[in-house]
């Protein structure tokens, strides 16, 4: 692995990793401690390279330049200076028109992958793609768990308490925003999610059987 991958592994506290300063110093774990987010990043990179032959090398190889992007556990919005969560950062100059990343469709969650995972009898061909992917995400994370093929990807998705979307707030918390356009927008989204949930339960077939 290149220097970035070595620093990433060292900051994550992975066995056999070489420690050192540099690109990951600001995100590194304290000596002797494992940083779960960095460990998840390292696992995701390995999964992308192994399963999808995704090129993420930090050092040049025969005929290929080092990859210009890195996965950061925390990025910052330049306009608001607020945390934007996990994201991609440029670790060297990027020219306009450069190809930054190629992800094979086999590693993407789609309606096709959802119908394959849950069965065409459970998800009709006319189902909304968003709902199909949502069903597969739930199945992969909460039913298959450790056995999920997408586990390294699922492990880097933010938890609800990290995002804190208002549609998960109770009425008392929402009351503090009374008079704001956030409240009707939240109520609308909550109603939409309820309709989608009820529609999924009403689907003919064996969808509910997939979630014991």
Can you put this structure into words, describing what you see?
The protein is mainly alpha-helical. 39% of the residues lie in helices and 8% in strands. The chain has eight helices and two strands, in the order ααββαααααα. The chain has helices at 3-12, 36-52, 111-118, 129-144, 151-154, 160-163, 171-174, 182-201; strands at 69-76, 83-90. A two-stranded antiparallel ribbon has the order 1-2. A hairpin with a 6-residue loop joins strand 1 (69-76) and strand 2. Helix 1 (3-12) crosses helix 2 and helix 3 (111-118) packs across helix 4. It is globular. It starts with a helix and ends in an 11-residue tail after the last helix. Residues 16-29 have low confidence and may be disordered.
Reconstruct the topology from this structure:
Elements: H1 3-12, H2 36-52, E1 69-76, E2 83-90, H3 111-118, H4 129-144, H5 151-154, H6 160-163, H7 171-174, H8 182-201
Antiparallel strand pairs: 1-2
Helix pairs in contact: 1-2, 3-4
Q: Give the proportion of residues in helices.
A: 25-40%
Mean pLDDT: 80
Measured by DSSP, the beta-strand proportion falls in 5-15%
SSE arrangement, N to C: HHEEHHHHHH
Count of DSSP-assigned helices: 8
The number of E-state strands comes to 2
C-alpha geometry: globular
Radius of gyration: 21 Å
Please give the order of strands in the largest beta sheet: 1-2
Structural class comes to: mainly alpha
The low-confidence runs, each spanning 5 or more residues with pLDDT under 50, are: 16-29
Major sheet size, sense and barrel closure? 2 strands, antiparallel
Q: Termini distance?
A: 41 Å
């Amino acid at each position: 692995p290149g220097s970035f991958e070595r620093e990433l592994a060292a900051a994550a506290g992975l066995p056999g990793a070489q420690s050192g300063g540099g690109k990951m110093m600001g995100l590194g774990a304290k000596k002797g401690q494992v940083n779960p987010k960095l460990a998840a990043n390292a696992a995701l990179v390995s999964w992308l390279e192994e399963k999808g032959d995704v090129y993420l090398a930090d050092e040049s190889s025969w005929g290929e330049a080092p990859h210009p992007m890195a996965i950061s556990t925390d990025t910052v919005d330049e306009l608001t200076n607020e945390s934007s969560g996990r994201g991609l950062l440029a670790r060297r100059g990027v020219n306009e028109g450069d190809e930054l990343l190629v992800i094979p469709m086999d590693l993407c969650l789609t309606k096709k992958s959802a119908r394959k995972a849950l069965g065409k009898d459970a998800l009709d061909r006319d189902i909304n793609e968003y709902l199909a992917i949502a069903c597969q995400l739930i199945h992969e994370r909460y039913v298959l768990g450790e056995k999920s093929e997408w586990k390294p990807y699922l492990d880097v998705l933010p938890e609800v308490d990290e995002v804190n979307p208002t549609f998960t707030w109770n009425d008392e918390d929402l009351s503090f925003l009374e008079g704001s356009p956030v409240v009707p927008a939240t109520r609308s989204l909550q109603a939409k999610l309820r309709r989608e949930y009820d529609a999924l339960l009403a689907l003919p077939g064996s969808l509910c059987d997939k979630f014991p």
